[in-house]
Amino acid sequence: MRVYEKFHEHIRLQNKVVTKENFTYKEIISVLNNTFPLLVGKKVLDIGCGSGSLTFYIAKQGFKVLGLDISQRAVKCCKLNAKILKLVKKTHFEVADFPEKFPKGKFDLVICSEIIEHIQKDNECLSKIHNLLSKNGILIISAPSSNSLLYKIGLLKRFDEKVGHVRRCTIENLQEKLYNNNFRVIETKKAEGILRNTLFSFNIFNFAIKIANRFSFASETLSILDKFFIPFFGESDLIFVAKINEE
Questions:
Q1: Pick the residue with more confidence: 247 or 209?
Q2: Omega within 30 of 0 (cis) for the link into 103
Q3: How far is the C-alpha of 26 from the C-alpha of 20, rounded, in Å?
């Protein structure tokens, strides 16, 4: 838990909700926007909500969102931010070490973005999510890929230790785990190339991320370049969209 409190020690309040052009969340937001029309209900669970950026984006689209995070600092910040962004009625935040602690009720959408790689009991995590989804519910899960070139040549070992990663995934093993926990994958996306991977893995490039998040043309240009490199250097992140397998 100390790792995650330290990770969020510089967490800041937000004065606006992120947009679909935001460089940091651009890929996952794209998947979210395609998923929203498929949802039957309006209840969403965001596991590992962190600063709440995705939680607030989803709430802004009219959904009611419960954000869970292991970090007390992160949850406290989210609650303050909900007031600033005037989204108190659409959001609720709780400190929870998922899957040891989980909420009651059913959800139409569960987001598990960049979380499962931190959890030792990953199969238990997926089993709990399965039980939390409504009949026609959807899971969006993302995780770092072991196909990353930077990972293969050993440049991400320190980064993985720093942020608390216990594993990386491949398309095959994450899909198998979803299948073994009664999920049916409906979409798979290689979401991040070597350019984004480099920018987000080394603090020296924080300035570039800030520029990309501030200027939409910079975000779009970097994203186009990043996608171009994926076939040559491999993906560094995976996004899956899955439904409960009713067969």
A1: 209
A2: no
A3: 6
Q: Where are the alpha helices (DSSP H) in the chain?
A: 2-7, 26-35, 53-60, 72-84, 122-132, 149-152, 157-163, 171-180, 194-201, 206-214, 216-233
| Contact indicator for 93, 79 with CB cutoff of 8 Å | yes
The domain made up of 2-244 has a fold known as: Rossmann fold (3.40.50)
Backbone angles phi, psi at 25, to 5 degrees: -110, 10
Q: Tell me phi and psi for residue 113, to 5 degrees.
A: -95, 115
DSSP letters spanning 39-78: -SS-EEEEET-TTSHHHHHHHHTT-EEEEEES-HHHHHHH
Q: Convert the pLDDT of each residue in 209-224 to its tens digit.
A: 999 999 999 999 999 9
Contact 144, 114 (CB under 8 A): yes
pTM above 0.90, yes or no: yes
pLDDT reported for residue 5: 67
In angstroms, how far is the first alpha carbon of the chain from the final one?
A: 38
Asked whether the predicted pLDDT for residue 118 surpasses 60, the reply is yes
Task: Please calculate the CA angle 79-85-89 and round it to the nearest 5 degrees.
Answer: 65
Picking from 149, 232, 240, the residue whose alpha carbon sits closest to that of residue 190 is 240
With cut-offs at 50, 70 and 90, classify the pLDDT of residue 9. Answer: low
What integer pLDDT is reported at residue 245 of this predicted model?
81
In tens, the pLDDT along 54-104 reads 999 999 999 999 999 999 999 999 999 999 999 999 999 999 999 998 899
| CA dihedral (88, 91, 97, 100) positive or negative | positive
The C-alpha atoms of residue 233 and residue 240 are separated, in whole angstroms, by: 20
